[in-house]
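Input.
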Amino acid sequence: MKGKLSIKARVTAWYTFFLLLLIVLTSVSLLFLSSRISSGKIRQQLHDVVTEAVANVRFRHNDLDTDRMDFYKNGVSVFVYNTQGYLIAPKTNLGIQVDAILEDQTVKTIYSAGERWMIYDVYAVADNTGFWVRGLASVTESGQTYSTLSLLLLILFPILAVIAGLGGYRITQRAFRPVKQIAETAGAINSGTDLSQRISYNEKSRDELSALCETMNQMLARLQNSFEAERQFTSDVSHELRTPLSVIHSQCQYALSPESSPEERIEALQSINRQTNYLTSITSQLLLLSRADQGRFEPDFARLDFAGLCRNICEDLEPVSEAAGLSMNLSLPGQAVFVNGDSDLLTRMITNLISNAVRYNKPEGNISVSLAMEDDFIRLTVSDTGIGIKEEDLPKIFRRFYRTDSTRSTKGSGLGLAMVEWIASVHGGKVTAESTYGIGSRLSVWLPAA
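Output.
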């Protein structure tokens, strides 16, 4: 049965049960305490009235003087008996007497004539005459009050149970509303493709369910970004691989054609070789990024002379820039500048920055490479006088395979800057980009100095 009930129903049932249990225990406790207090009050009144009556007893010639005595006070009836147990006073209202043995300074409760009485007897001596004084008080009225209250509680109990159940269900329904919205949103996402849906909740409420909804919305936002990035990544990879594969396919058909000459076949093989190298480069970079995303890449850190590394790479790439009609200006410190880093990764990062400056530069343009210390960081800056980047495209250039409209006609994989940003983050650094469209760009990398 438990498994068939919803959490909301079970919480409501437990809430109702414990609330009713609390009401019952509280009511019983109050009735018990009230009974004890009322009984104690009657006992005290009985003791006080009897004690006062004993003090007022006087005898004249062995006859009781009743002028100073009050035989009924504060709900207590007073009776005076002689030593043989015969009633001396009062002479009237004999109907309320009860038949009980006289016991000195003893309080007892008896039933007589359908009523419940509390009795208190005291033996005393006055004017050389012994006597008994009995106080008698009815406790039937208070007992009837408790019985009435108990009956009223039994009558109200089902009503309280219904009210508690409805109130508990209402409270539970409101409390679990975010859980229902979570389930509905998850179901809508599961049955469709819209990942932009979010769970609505009261942002002013800071309870656990609001925190859960906020966390779920953050998770959904991350999932949406991940799916969109994966969709865009798949589309970009397909686009990047389609062109070289098409070229390889067409060149293979051309080389295998009987009409092609040996020179044409050699030309086709050279084209295939270039496209294969391009595919190998893309695959290598994608494999490295994929391993990094999965947390399976471990860089090999060592203490490196970053200034010397930059100088060597610039010397290696200087013929490439000269072949493109570009001049390269270096502003590197003469002394060693050390970083803790992976030599292969840093070499790829510097190479990508300079290669981008060469690829997207203008004829007879300039490339500037500078290295400077800023606080505890080393700043590597690569500037060019190339085509530049539009302001709206600047925040997107570090995305994988992202290429602006002005760079789509140039040869490149669209992974260079994505690799630069990842390598900088691996080394605890960052990358920034500044550009003026049509004038040039400047990319800066900050790395912690060793």
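The chain has three domains: 2-165, 227-293, 301-448.
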